[in-house]
Specification:
There is one protein chain. A hairpin with a 4-residue loop joins β6 and β7. The protein is of the alpha+beta class and 244 residues long. It is built from five helices and nine strands, in the order αβαββαβαβββββα. Bound molecules: glycine.
Length: 244
């Protein structure tokens, strides 16, 4: 059985072999972001790279970032203890492209890692796309061969990801694992979606905009990729249990 250490290492090595710089987790308290008390996603340490304020000596990166979601826009606190999948502290596995690749490569990498490297059964995976994102819909059909009824269009903020009230943002595509009919819950977009049967394991964010204030959204200098996969959730899946 893969341990969480094996899974973290496997993720970093997969993207490292695909040319991504392996970047250590930043501290939980953001070093240069007064808008957040704690890092709440893997992209936070790269916020200024997405917006073009900062450059790094690499164009793609991969990390396992320590995160806390106990307040602010991404607040999981009320779910902790009630679901099998929420934590206050967790690690987010993520690959990032700063203008180097976009939707097709992000989907290709995610599908390859989940189904070919880790061997998940494609029949147990369902994805969502932002309701107007025909490009992502077509890519999932073409790359993963998913039938139309397992590519669900979602019109809410669940499929438009932002780190906070301001900062980089864009439409996203989430990958769900079906733990099976013995667990209560329904597919994304259904009345029972909050159950633990269909668990979101990976979010691919197609970063295209910067929210500057409530009324101003600018284009990013280059379309970019930010992904986030909860280490503890994928560990439950790969270890054949449904509860983190
Ligand atoms: N930044 C992607 C996520 O937190 O889901």
């Amino acid at each position: 059985m893969l341990t969480t250490n094996d899974i973290r290492r496997g993720f970093l090595d997969y993207f490292g072999a695909a040319g991504h710089r392996i970047v250590p987790s930043a501290p939980l308290v953001p070093q240069n972001d007064p808008t957040l008390m704690f890092v709440n996603a893997g992209m936070v340490p790269f916020k200024n790279v997405f917006t073009g304020l900062e450059t790094r000596p690499y164009g793609t990166a991969v990390s396992a970032q320590k995160c806390v979601r106990a307040g602010g826009k991404h607040n999981d606190l009320d779910n902790v203890g009630y679901t099998a999948r929420h934590h206050t502290f967790f690690e987010m596995l993520g690959n990032f492209s700063f203008g180097q690749y976009f939707k097709a490569e992000a989907i290709e990498h995610a599908w390859t890692l989940l189904t070919k490297v880790w061997g998940l059964d494609p029949a147990r995976l369902t994805v969502t796309v932002y309701h107007t994102d025909d490009e992502a819909f077509d890519l999932w059909r073409k790359i993963a061969g998913l039938p139309d009824d397992r590519i669900i269009r979602i019109a809410t903020n669940d499929n438009f990801w932002s780190m906070g009230d301001t900062g980089p943002c864009g439409p996203c595509s989430e990958i769900f694992f079906d733990h099976g009919p013995h667990i209560p819950g329904g597919p994304p977009g259904s009345p029972d979606e909050d159950g633990d049967r269909f668990v979101e394991i990976w979010n691919l964010v197609f970063m295209q905009y910067e929210q500057v204030d409530a009324g101003t959204r600018l284009d990013l200098p280059r379309p970019s990729i930010d992904t986030g996969m909860g280490l503890e959730r994928i560990a439950a899946v790969l270890q054949g249990v449904h509860d983190n």
